[in-house]
Amino acid sequence: MRSATYLLTLIAVARAASAQVFTGGTRLELAAGWNFSNFSGDGSMKHRTGLVAGVGVLHPIGNTGWSFEPQLAYSMKGAESDGAVGETTFKVDYVEVPVLFRYEFWADADSHPFFSLGATPAFQVGCRAHSESGAIALHRACSDDNLDPHGFDVGLTGGGGFAFRYLNHLVTIGGRYNYGLVDVFRRGPNERNSVWSVVSTVDFPWLR
After folding, report:
1. What residues does each domain of the chain span?
2. Which end of the chain has the smaller Cβ count within 10 Å, N or C?
3. d(Cα 3, Cα 75) in Å, to the nearest integer?
4. How many CB atoms lie within 10 A of CB 67?
5. How far is CA 82 from each of CA 44, 79, 90, 128, 206, rounded to the nearest angstrom?
6. Given this model, what pLDDT does residue 6 score?
């Protein structure tokens, strides 16, 4: 009887400690997913699919269910268009600094939904164009098309998803939408970034 009582006590303590890992301290997170990006503006474009990956921190704000979630990510954006030289893909890549606030419903539960919202400053680190017409393929910088890309963008970001526990980690999978407030190019069509993303994160205990 004493052994059974002792075992049950250990299990209860372990479960309580596990719960504190996810609700009682700051967590480091790794994030990765896919962008489905487009330009929203003058032209008629198709989506470009690209990678988004980075790291972040999730810091609970008291016991409110809210957390502060700044991140640093590499994000591949752009769009595709059909023109006189065939299909052209504009590949515009950014280093982003999403500044998000996340609300978790029933955060103590093993699995629960959440939503997030905030702003995403982004610094353009590459702009290329790839055109294909039959067997001919052309690779060039955006400046070769007389397009002068802005070096900075800031977008409004919102999304949601589900979080669940796996071993000693908190895993999330969700979607988010980002709409840029700055034109992609200084010259040329008035286009802005419009990006849907599917992102998964894995959280690790960091500070208690």
Report:
1. 2-207
2. N
3. 54
4. 22
5. 9, 11, 11, 16, 48
6. 43
The Cα–Cα gap between 160 and 162 comes to 7
Q: Pick from 46, 32, 133, 124: which is nearest to 81 by CA?
A: 46
Of 52-61, 131-140, 197-206, the one with minimum mean pLDDT is 131-140
Q: How far apart are CA 187 and CA 164, in angstroms?
A: 46
Where does 2-207 sit in CATH, by number? 2.40.160.20
Predicted model pTM? 0.82
| Residue 141: pLDDT band with limits 50, 70, 90 | confident
Q: Between 42 and 164, where is the model more confident?
A: 164
Question: Beta-carbon neighbour count of residue 7 at 10 Å?
Answer: 10
Of 32 and 47, which is predicted with more confidence?
32
Question: What Cα–Cα distance (Å) separates residue 19 from each residue in 100, 168, 202?
Answer: 23, 10, 16
Burial class (CB within 10 angstroms; exposed 0-12, middle 13-18, buried 19+) of 75: buried
Give the number of other Cβ atoms within 10 Å of residue 45's Cβ.
21
Q: Are 113 and 88 in contact (CB under 8 A)?
A: no
d(CA 25, CA 30): 16
d(Cα 65, Cα 19) in Å, to the nearest integer? 14
The single residue listed with the structure tokens 């372990």 is: 14
